[in-house]
Amino acid sequence: MSTTPTETRSRSGVEVRLEDLRKVYSGVTALDGLSLTIGQGELVALLGPSGCGKTTALRLVAGLEEANGGRVVIGGQDVTNLGANKRQIGMVFQAYSLFPHMTAAQNLEFGMQLHKVDVEERRRRALEMLDLVGLSPHANKYASQMSGGQQQRVALARALAIQPKVLLLDEPLSALDARVRARLRDEIRRVQLEVGITTLFVTHDQEEALAIADRVGVMNKGRIEQLGPPTAIYSRPATPFVAEFVGLTNRLSGNVRNGEVEVRGARLPLVKPDTADGPAIALIRPEAVSLASDGDASGGPLVGTVIAVSFLGATSRVTVDLGDVVVLAQMPTSQASDNPAGSRVRLTLRPDPVLIARDEKPAAEA
Amino acid sequence: MSRRAKLQIFRVIVFVLMGAFFLTPLIAMFEFSTRGNSETAPRTLEAWATIFQTPDMVDAITASLQLAAITSIAMLVLLLPTMVWVRLRLPGLNRIVEFICLLPLTVPAIALVVGLRPIYVWININLTDSILALAFAYVVLVLPYAYRSLDAGLAAIDIKTLSEAARSLGAGWLTVMWRVIVPNMSSAILNACLLSVALVLGEYTVANLLGFENLQVAIAYVGLVSAGTSVAVALASLVFAFLLLMVISFFGRRRTPSLTAAATDPQYLTAGQRT
């Protein structure tokens, strides 16, 4: 791990623009006018459920699919009609994609050879890239001799070895186990920052997207519902879909009046103060629900019974039955352990801005 | 006696029985081909010696070898890119291609020849002139076997991801085919070739009906004149085909990358040890 990728570190990424991209598969709209600009050296994650069009968007940038409309502009050049092999992109796939008949080093050299890099430079750069992902001792190994995480790291090094303009990551961690996934996620971010390459990362895992990206685009039905920094996506979701897809949400019935919503006696501010008055469903994060023992004077007005406590490590999630609805509360484990299942508790709703969903039934909670 | 020992004995018995089943006819053929002219005559290799004194026989062997090579190459050129393209771009056509490739199994040789004749007349190929006329027919005949072999090879690798990875690295379709797909399917391609060669070397009906003299047709003709020579040629052709397939197989397998060879590449070994 001694080599420093000085050459790559000094490079800066290019801007990538997706303009009104449309894609239809056999009458089904996969992308419905997607527009997105990724700044130089920025990492944008597209997050969404299966079938929302995120992978299609990435494949259109890669040139692996042809758009039915719109443009893809990489570094100021319109590449919409260029083949995948002429776009100078690096891509890491969801499935393991190392060429099985080549060693790790040969995999890295493959792309450089196609880009007419001379032998000495190829070898030097292959080692440098393997060093970057901490795998130079594995240069002579075949894919079958490496673990899944190692294979994906070599695939990342291979994608970067051709010095692409853009790095595309198509759910590269989804085939890995949780521990390796978290480690590799951080490693991808480290390498991306070190190389300074513009990156589009596609995932259905919200934790992954929020942890790694400069900005997250939450997609639904072929469109981006909200694009913004991870904190904004989580704490100020623009739509009920975003609120419910990113993180857990309690859905409590309430009444909107004068730019606030009244939920079970608590008056909470709104993310969108101009919401029309009337009955509504308030979407409240579990961490905005605090909990105290029934006898505690500081407890809130809502009284319920703990029916389950889920240990998540530093925090725990407590499920409380209020009689007519079930509410989730998330808090430090030490606090949650004071209220085991069966105990009576009092809930307080923290006055964080909440989002309103009007078109859904109030019965379904959490 | 332990279960393992019993299993071992069972294996040996099966091996001996199967060996006897396959070798007995060959030994009988050899025995027949070395008989003299009468019951009391001594053993002789005269029938074997006459094989190479028959000019038609040498020509027939050459023709069969040419046919085997042309058929194998034509089959690969036709079938491999088609199957890869269908898998990557037109997966809906997979069933249709499979059906077409398996169809020759159900077509009798005589029907194939009757169908081919007017086509050759129409495209103005004189049947007696070009060996290609027979090679075309053989390409059709080997399709079912070659398809099965190549299909198994394609199923064994994630062809879509590998080809997309290669494309993203800058490879054109020819490079994808030649440097990524073919090396990862070398066993399947080799098996398809072996089956094609075996079928062509043993084919009699179509060649005879189309008026070509390949190895099997020549053996049949010789058999009319001298039963001993005919059996000698048949046995020789079996041994020859066996050796040929062994050689093809040996060289084919040698192309598979050697793990140990690559693992000791000094360029990267040094790098690996450095960290």
Keywords:
heterodimer; A: alpha+beta; Rossmann fold; OB fold (Dihydrolipoamide Acetyltransferase, E2P); 2 domains; 33% strand; disordered N terminus; disordered C terminus; B: 275 residues; mainly alpha; MetI-like fold; 77% helix
Give a brief description:
With about 375 residues, chain A is of the alpha+beta class. Helix content of chain A is about 25%, strand content about 35%. Chain A has ten helices and 20 strands.
Write the layout of secondary structure elements.
The complex is a heterodimer of chains A (366) and B (275).
Chain A: H1 6-9, E1 16-25, E2 28-38, E3 43-47, H2 54-62, E4 69-74, E5 77-78, E6 89-92, H3 104-114, H4 119-132, H5 148-161, E7 166-170, H6 178-195, E8 198-203, H7 206-212, E9 215-220, E10 223-228, H8 230-235, H9 240-245, E11 250-257, E12 260-263, E13 266-269, E14 278-284, E15 289-293, E16 302-311, E17 315-321, E18 326-332, H10 333-336, E19 344-349, E20 355-357
Parallel strand pairs in A: 3-8, 3-9, 6-7, 7-8
Antiparallel strand pairs in A: 1-2, 1-4, 4-5, 9-10, 11-12, 11-14, 12-13, 14-20, 15-19, 16-17, 16-19, 17-18
Helix pairs in contact in A: 3-4, 3-5, 4-5
Chain B: H1 3-33, H2 46-49, H3 55-89, H4 94-102, H5 109-122, H6 132-155, H7 159-168, H8 173-184, H9 186-201, H10 205-209, H11 215-225, H12 227-254, H13 259-263, H14 266-274
Helix pairs in contact in B: 1-12, 3-6, 3-9, 3-11, 6-9, 7-8, 9-12, 11-12
Could you characterize what this model shows?
The complex is a heterodimer of chains A (366) and B (275). In chain A, 25% of the residues lie in helices and 33% in strands. Chain A is α+β, with helices and mostly antiparallel strands. Chain A has two domains: 6-235, P-loop containing nucleotide triphosphate hydrolases (Rossmann fold); 249-357, RNA polymerase II/Efflux pump adaptor protein, barrel-sandwich hybrid domain (OB fold (Dihydrolipoamide Acetyltransferase, E2P), Beta Barrel), CATH 2.40.50. In chain A, the strands form four sheets. Chain A has a six-stranded mixed β-sheet, sandwiched between helices. Chain B is mostly helical. Chain B is 77% helix and 0% strand. Chain B has helices at residues 3-33, 46-49, 55-89, 94-102, 109-122, 132-155, 159-168, 173-184, 186-201, 205-209, 215-225, 227-254, 259-263, 266-274. In chain B, helix 3 (55-89) runs antiparallel to helix 9. The radius of gyration of chain B is 24 Å and the shape is globular. Chain B starts with a helix and ends with a helix. The chains are: A alpha+beta (366), B mainly alpha (275).
